[in-house]
Amino acid sequence: MNCLNHLISMNDLSTEQIKQLIKRADDWATQPATIRQPLAGSFVANLFLEPSTRTRFSFEMAEKRLGAQVLNFAAESSSTSKGESIYDTLRTLQAMGVQAAVIRTKQNHLLQQLRDSLQLQLINAGDGTNEHPTQCLLDLLTIWQHFGRFAGLRVAIIGDLRHSRVLGSHLQALPRLGVELLLAGPQSMMRDAAELPSGVKIVDMAEAVQTSDVVMMLRVQLERHSETLLVTKEEYHEQFGLTLERAKSMKPGAVIMHPGPFNRGVEIASELVEADNSLIFKQVENGVAARMAVLESLLTGGKAQWESSLQTVNL
């Protein structure tokens, strides 16, 4: 696999690199993590500048399973609370010998601004409303494990599309893998059609739910809305949520996904979170393996110890 310097956007990856990372993540998901620790002796800093549970703990578990030494950064007790810039904090960590930084931030494109001025390898753990590449990779891994393919699948992503960094990454990846991507949700939360890649369609709820192989629901990100939500949570659920009644119209074999955190009874009925056709907690499980694959590739340079088995990847 070609060496990765950073993972900031899904556009940092070629289609073949995406497939190789999915294959490697599947290897980590199915083999004991204690066999070897390729990152023993490495130091990784986690800088979560906005709240997170799944992503933060998933990265920390991935780092520790790979044998890395983990430094967890707390903004409220760091020099950033004294006015130090994120660049200066990262430059300080670099001087200490930290090799990689996992960063979650409310600021769009912060990592792109930093990438050329640091030797640290940067991993985007979610930046503003822009992208969330490792969430995209774990979603892709979950889809591939379930269906055994991408080409010919139809995936619907439904909900607060305007603020979704998960969607931002999927827009860069799913069409390249041969997936037909449908978008549905309130008009006030829709992305500008001019920003969408060719072939991505905006459809109504009925078409999205009834015709897709994967129905991926998104949380309404109230913390990012400058305006007040114009409907109640109950009204949103009836109009744009995956209700029990809507779920009955899903095609045979279709599955439910959600990147989390999920609001039961808002974008998804509580009973559907752990339904037989829900892959939501499988996504959480796969998050550790996907992040292990990314960290390993970045910090070992895609060494031949696993690269040789990935020359031809058919997904």
TrEMBL record:
<comment type="pathway">
    <text>Pyrimidine metabolism; UMP biosynthesis via de novo pathway; (S)-dihydroorotate from bicarbonate: step 2/3.</text>
</comment>
<feature type="binding site">
    <location>
        <position position="54"/>
    </location>
    <ligand>
        <name>carbamoyl phosphate</name>
    </ligand>
</feature>
<feature type="binding site">
    <location>
        <position position="82"/>
    </location>
    <ligand>
        <name>L-aspartate</name>
    </ligand>
</feature>
<comment type="subunit">
    <text>Heterododecamer (2C3:3R2) of six catalytic PyrB chains organized as two trimers (C3), and six regulatory PyrI chains organized as three dimers (R2).</text>
</comment>
<feature type="binding site">
    <location>
        <position position="219"/>
    </location>
    <ligand>
        <name>L-aspartate</name>
    </ligand>
</feature>
<dbReference type="GO" id="GO:0006207">
    <property type="term" value="P:'de novo' pyrimidine nucleobase biosynthetic process"/>
</dbReference>
<dbReference type="GO" id="GO:0005829">
    <property type="term" value="C:cytosol"/>
</dbReference>
<dbReference type="GO" id="GO:0016597">
    <property type="term" value="F:amino acid binding"/>
</dbReference>
<dbReference type="InterPro" id="IPR002082">
    <property type="entry name" value="Asp_carbamoyltransf"/>
</dbReference>
<dbReference type="GO" id="GO:0044205">
    <property type="term" value="P:'de novo' UMP biosynthetic process"/>
</dbReference>
<dbReference type="GO" id="GO:0006520">
    <property type="term" value="P:amino acid metabolic process"/>
</dbReference>
<feature type="binding site">
    <location>
        <position position="260"/>
    </location>
    <ligand>
        <name>carbamoyl phosphate</name>
    </ligand>
</feature>
<keyword id="KW-0665">Pyrimidine biosynthesis</keyword>
<protein>
    <recommendedName>
        <fullName>Aspartate carbamoyltransferase</fullName>
        <ecNumber>2.1.3.2</ecNumber>
    </recommendedName>
</protein>
<dbReference type="InterPro" id="IPR006130">
    <property type="entry name" value="Asp/Orn_carbamoylTrfase"/>
</dbReference>
<feature type="binding site">
    <location>
        <position position="135"/>
    </location>
    <ligand>
        <name>carbamoyl phosphate</name>
    </ligand>
</feature>
<feature type="binding site">
    <location>
        <position position="55"/>
    </location>
    <ligand>
        <name>carbamoyl phosphate</name>
    </ligand>
</feature>
<comment type="similarity">
    <text>Belongs to the aspartate/ornithine carbamoyltransferase superfamily. ATCase family.</text>
</comment>
<feature type="binding site">
    <location>
        <position position="165"/>
    </location>
    <ligand>
        <name>L-aspartate</name>
    </ligand>
</feature>
<dbReference type="Pfam" id="PF00185">
    <property type="entry name" value="OTCace"/>
</dbReference>
<dbReference type="InterPro" id="IPR036901">
    <property type="entry name" value="Asp/Orn_carbamoylTrfase_sf"/>
</dbReference>
<feature type="binding site">
    <location>
        <position position="132"/>
    </location>
    <ligand>
        <name>carbamoyl phosphate</name>
    </ligand>
</feature>
<dbReference type="InterPro" id="IPR006132">
    <property type="entry name" value="Asp/Orn_carbamoyltranf_P-bd"/>
</dbReference>
<feature type="domain" description="Aspartate/ornithine carbamoyltransferase Asp/Orn-binding">
    <location>
        <begin position="152"/>
        <end position="297"/>
    </location>
</feature>
<dbReference type="Pfam" id="PF02729">
    <property type="entry name" value="OTCace_N"/>
</dbReference>
<keyword id="KW-0808">Transferase</keyword>
<dbReference type="InterPro" id="IPR006131">
    <property type="entry name" value="Asp_carbamoyltransf_Asp/Orn-bd"/>
</dbReference>
<feature type="binding site">
    <location>
        <position position="261"/>
    </location>
    <ligand>
        <name>carbamoyl phosphate</name>
    </ligand>
</feature>
<dbReference type="GO" id="GO:0004070">
    <property type="term" value="F:aspartate carbamoyltransferase activity"/>
</dbReference>
<comment type="function">
    <text>Catalyzes the condensation of carbamoyl phosphate and aspartate to form carbamoyl aspartate and inorganic phosphate, the committed step in the de novo pyrimidine nucleotide biosynthesis pathway.</text>
</comment>
<feature type="binding site">
    <location>
        <position position="104"/>
    </location>
    <ligand>
        <name>carbamoyl phosphate</name>
    </ligand>
</feature>
<feature type="domain" description="Aspartate/ornithine carbamoyltransferase carbamoyl-P binding">
    <location>
        <begin position="6"/>
        <end position="144"/>
    </location>
</feature>
